[in-house]
Design a protein that fits this description.
This protein is mostly beta strands and 135 residues long. The chain has one helix spanning 5-17; strands at residues 32-37, 42-45, 50-54, 58-62, 66-70, 72-76, 80-85, 88-92, 96-99, 108-116, 119-130. It has a six-stranded mixed beta sheet, with no helix packed on it. The protein has a three-stranded mixed beta sheet with strand order 3-5-9, with no helix packed on it. A two-stranded antiparallel sheet has the order 1-6.
Length: 135
Amino acid sequence: MFFNSRYFYVLYSWLCSQSFRKYIYFSFSDPVPPKIHSVPQSLYVVTNQSLSVEAGSNVTTMKGNQLSLSCNASGFPPPKLKWFKDGELFKVGARTHNISNLRVTDGGLYTCIAENLAGEARSVTNLTVIGMYCC
């Protein structure tokens, strides 16, 4: 069983914050490392449309389209999610990242990292945005 002072402090703080109850039930569980659930895809989309993809996919699309990246993770305690673009942190806590009106500069490597006390999992999406070519 995994038990440390942090868990004890959280449990103790919670018990103290509750009004006195007749029965209090709780159990301890070992932490479970995060896992990102995805079905990676390779998409090449040249029409104007909205795309919804899971983290871990490779996407090539045209500028002006809309994109929704999702990162579904599980673990115990529930993992915290962080989004990075080309190694730079830009969003914390959200399961999805939406981009409307894609620009060529939106292309890059998008990484979703799920972290908890037991470890971390990551999934990388490669997004390439191409400009519209004219005659």
